């Protein structure tokens, strides 16, 4: 892994490193809401809609003064315009910034954005569009120095220069075995945020998950994060009483839905849907798969149920009633064998999602359904799920890693066909060695109350 391109999509572990090198115009706070970062503020200059609800919005943003890149050059509006336009022309992120039609330098510290979007079906569209604009910038607006990229070519990607809390030092092989490397970052002593960063040096090591437990045990690793829950659970259970490891939980957005495919010949029947919903025990799913470390709504399922209350109602778990309903349905349609209703479920080839699907398979079998898991590599799964072309499947396990209230109309259309919200995952799994003084204070503890503002 020899590239840290600020304007292309990266795997999550590399994106975490990129965030230490580059700042964005906005950033997400602990609750996932956007707040100003490189900008002091952004204001809406104008807003208009045509009869087809195509919205036009002009937004002016002022940059903070006195922000410098790691090489000593001051941040300029030209750098912002260059970075946004380069992202818009990228291979992987251009669609994310599709709502931004243009960005221009408008003053010594000012840039102007022209935003266009179809806001049909959105409540208070001008407010939603401005909020969506800030959330997009918090995810993708990494600002690079224009002249460095234009002069250095590929070198600018291999040895990045940003305005972030750490500057890039080097790539090094930390192990003689093939292709295991580390990225070394040093503290940016001139960082514009007072008191940050709190650590002098970070070494990010790339290793297979099979080595994480050994690395923590022998001291070669201080912190393992973005861990699959199964690995986190293994380490937690191994030495939790001896205090060998410290747990960490952080708030993130991840809303998991089980959606009905519009092409399903069975789930088009209302009584089958009701039986299906009564056969899903979400509390048991939370306990068995995640040790209860996911949020199960009691009452409504956030925005999805507000928009589609008849489709996303929270229902009690009644497997016996569901089994009777399934039997009666099969008799009514003249099925030769009134045993189980077969359903295909599309899932990404990822450990946690597969664990969820396997638990659902057990629950729904007792309710009269025969669930068959169809897994695809993540990129292929996304292509099918996001396009809505699910004719080969009855169910889709689908997650939205952002507040549903500010997701796009296209994603809301996926929710519109109904289903059930399974859980909200707010946990950032991590383990640290507590004897390491720097990490003892730097990594937040898992203990104590967790505030979930969006949960009922």
Give structural notes.
The chain has helices spanning about 10-20, 75-90, 125-140, 145-150, 155-160, 210-220, 230-240, 270-280, 280-290, 300-305, 320-330, 350-365, 380-385, 410-415, 435-440, and strands spanning about 25-30, 35, 40-50, 55-65, 100-105, 110-120, 165-175, 180-185, 200-205, 225, 245-250, 255-260, 340-350, 370-375, 395-400, 420-425, 430. By secondary structure, the protein is α+β, with helices and mostly antiparallel strands. It folds into three domains: about 10-150, Dipeptide-binding Protein, Domain 1 (Dipeptide-binding Protein, domain 1, Alpha-Beta Complex), CATH 3.90.76; about 155-245 and about 435-440, D-Maltodextrin-Binding Protein, domain 2, CATH 3.40.190.10; about 255-425, Dipeptide-binding Protein, Domain 3 (Dipeptide-binding Protein, domain 3). The strands form five sheets. Strands 14-13-15-12-16 form a five-stranded mixed beta sheet, with helices on both faces. A four-stranded antiparallel beta sheet has the order 3-4-6-5, covered by helices on one side. Helix 8 packs antiparallel against helix 11. It starts with 11 loop residues before the first helix and ends in a 14-residue tail after the last helix. The model is unreliable at about 300-310 and about 445-455 (pLDDT under 50).
């Amino acid at each position: 892994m020899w590239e840290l391109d600020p304007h292309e999509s990266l795997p999550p572990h590399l994106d975490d490193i990129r965030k230490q090198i580059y700042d964005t115009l906005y950033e997400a706070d602990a609750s996932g809401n956007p707040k100003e970062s490189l900008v002091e503020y952004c204001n809406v200059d104008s807003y208009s809609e045509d009869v087809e609800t195509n919205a036009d919005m002009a937004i002016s943003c002022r940059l903070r003064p006195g922000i410098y890149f790691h090489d000593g050059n001051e941040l300029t509006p030209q750098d912002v315009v260059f970075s946004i336009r380069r992202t818009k022309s990228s291979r992987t992120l251009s669609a994310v910034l599709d709502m931004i039609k243009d960005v221009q330098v408008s003053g010594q510290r000012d840039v102007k954005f022209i935003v266009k979007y179809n806001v049909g079906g959105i409540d208070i569209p001008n407010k939603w569009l401005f909020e969506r604009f800030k959330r997009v910038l918090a995810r993708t607006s990494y600002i690079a120095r224009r002249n460095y990229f234009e002069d250095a070519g590929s070198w600018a990607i291999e040895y990045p220069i940003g305005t972030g809390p750490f500057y890039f030092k080097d790539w090094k092989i930390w192990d003689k075995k093939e292709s295991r490397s580390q990225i070394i970052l040093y503290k940016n002593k001139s960082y514009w945020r007072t008191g940050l960063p709190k650590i002098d040096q970070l070494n990010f090591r790339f290793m297979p998950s099979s080595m994480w437990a050994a690395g923590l045990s022998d001291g070669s690793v201080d912190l393992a994060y973005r861990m699959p829950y199964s690995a986190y659970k293994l380490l937690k259970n191994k030495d939790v009483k001896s205090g060998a490891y410290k747990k960490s939980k952080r708030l993130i957005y991840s809303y998991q839905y089980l959606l009905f495919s519009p092409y399903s010949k069975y789930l088009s029947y209302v009584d089958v849907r009701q039986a299906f919903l009564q056969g899903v025990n979400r509390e048991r799913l939370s306990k068995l798969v995640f040790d209860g470390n996911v949020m199960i709504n009691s009452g409504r399922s956030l925005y999805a149920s507000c928009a589609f209350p008849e489709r996303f109602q929270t229902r009690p778990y009644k497997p016996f009633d569901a089994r009777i309903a399934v039997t009666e349905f099969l008799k009514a349609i003249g099925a030769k064998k009134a045993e189980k209703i077969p359903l295909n479920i599309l899932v990404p080839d990822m450990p946690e999602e597969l664990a969820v699907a396997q638990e659902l398979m057990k629950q729904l079998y007792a309710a009269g359904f025969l669930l068959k898991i169809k897994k695809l590599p993540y990129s292929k799964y996304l292509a099918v799920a996001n396009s809505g072309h699910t004719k080969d499947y009855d169910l889709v396990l689908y997650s939205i890693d952002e507040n549903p209230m500010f997701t796009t109309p296209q994603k809301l259309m996926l929710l519109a066909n109904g289903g059930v919200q399974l859980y909200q995952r707010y946990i950032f799994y991590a383990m640290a060695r507590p004897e390491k003084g720097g990490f003892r204070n730097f990594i937040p503890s898992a203990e104590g109350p967790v505030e979930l503002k969006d949960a009922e």
